[in-house]
């Protein structure tokens, strides 16, 4: 029932094709017939991005980017603006769900070898991830609580490790210290960059359609495909329903589940908190940053850990199997990598003293090692797999020759 043939567009369709034809071609786009629920994350990310842009625009109508008025405007949104608390809670919960989906989307790409299908899609996705991290951090600053101020202080001071970084820091801050000018610039960037992400997301999807989607088996299924509609359009709608139910449920029950209590306290620039930490989706990177005692080394290691997935297409260019289903050792390393990610997330929320520092250094080494070892293990496994198959084939040929010669000798 699933072997539905894909009908190509007729050759005489010129540049004057109607919009309905393009719409029809999008619906009949050929997809592998065995895509699992892990391929729903991309469409869910589009839905959450749209919700974040919509709720963000509504929040800007009542927000004031001023050191003295930012907290007042947030209180007005939460207490006095009509349904303001719902909109802000949706925006906060949507940010957490957005990054949770991103991490699952990346993990799926690593496990099933999506980076081998189309490297342009992989690198455009990495660019989207980096931009999303920037937008998420800028949004964390806008409520102007204790963590907002000190988190901005920590992150902006990382600019000083590069040549000319101190000058660039003064330019970004609008002076020698963080002030209202800095907050206004953070607000403008946080408002504009989501539209850049939206445009790049569309480019990401267009690049995906060049070579098609990967699949759980990691095999070429070009000649055995099904149209996107109705098989996967219905599946995406079911995913949307579950996602919206989870988002609304979190908004009305645990609106501040991921927020730090210090975010509700007024800023005291003369008192540094005992533990400065970002939102949960940045904790793994923050743990890596703190694990290196040297400032420049910590910044470099953190960015290497974030963008390290860029090495997968470089190391794995000669693989025959995309998916880890054909490589049990790589699956084990993948599980260790994911578990270590969660381990670093826990460490990033702790005070950087005693054994937590040592644990963070161990987790950092394991994280960076896994980024290199996963593709190397897959390549080594394939080498031995094909070598063994070749030797078995050669041995079979030799045995056939021996059997043939033995029969000839017996017949003589």
From TrEMBL:
InterPro entries in the cross-refs: Cyt_b/b6_C (IPR005798), Cyt_b/b6_C_sf (IPR036150), Cyt_b/b6_N (IPR005797), Cytb/b6-like_sf (IPR027387), Cytochrome_b_N_euk/bac (IPR048259), Di-haem_cyt_TM (IPR016174)
Location (main, coarse): mitochondrion
Cofactor note: Binds 2 heme groups non-covalently.
Membrane topology category: Multi-pass membrane protein
Molecular-function GO terms, alphabetical: metal ion binding; oxidoreductase activity; quinol-cytochrome-c reductase activity
GO biological process, one term: mitochondrial electron transport, ubiquinol to cytochrome c
Name of this protein: Cytochrome b
Organism: Magallana angulata
